[in-house]
Structures are given as structure tokens and as C-alpha cells.
Amino acid sequence: MLKRAYSRLGDAIANNNVETMRSLIDTSVFHATLPGIEGPPLNFLQFVAELDRQRTMFSDFGRNIQTHSMIVDDNHLATWYTMTVTNDGPRKSYKGQAVLPPTNKQLAIASMDMVTFNDFGVIVGLTVVSDRMDTLDQMA
Q: What is the model's pTM?
């Protein structure tokens, strides 16, 4: 059940389907910790805004993922994967200003997601870990 919910979340992210994301996530308590974002975890709306920012830089964000390993234990799921994206849009600051032009380079971003579910199989937390310096080096 948890693997299916996680897979559906990945599809919703790839297709920018906010309503499906909303159906899989308890938006009242959801918190997300993402690479390169300082400060407290993001709530649901902030998470969706960050996905939009990523899609500005990488129009194929979330569409090309190779899963290497997935482990489910109780109400937790961890997965290690590589996402391939093309930097075909400007990198923008969190305030919306373009800070780097697109490179049109293809990047391979190795990441790990750690997802927490409530007792009903609804997502309440997400932590994404990846090497931001590796990503920026590939963009250079």
C-alpha cells in the first residue's frame, strides 16, 4: 500500500497533478525537507511552489527516474533513485529572480527520499537528500 501511494505521488509530481498530490498527502500536517532549502520544513503549499520552481529549470522534472532500491518498514518508506533532467530553463532564486541561465545540459541527480505515512497510508512527511554540489557541478 505504501509503495503504491509513493508511486502515485511520483506520477502526480511528474504530471503536475496537485489534486492527486492533495489526495495522497495529509496537507494539515505535511512537512517536507528538501536539498538546498534552509529554514523550517515546507508545508504542502510551499512544497508545491518548490516543485513549480524546479519545473522552471527542468521541464522534464520527475519524468525520468530509475529506482535502485526501496525499503518499507512500518509507516516509513525509503528509496534511492537517479532522476535524469534537462536544464532547459533558468535557475531562479526563491524570490523568483533568474540567477543562472539554462545550460541545456542533461543532469543525473542521485537522491534518496524518506517518506513518513500515518496509520491510514497517507503521507505526512518527506525528506529528500541529494548532493547539491554535484548537481551544480553538472550544470557548470
A: 0.92
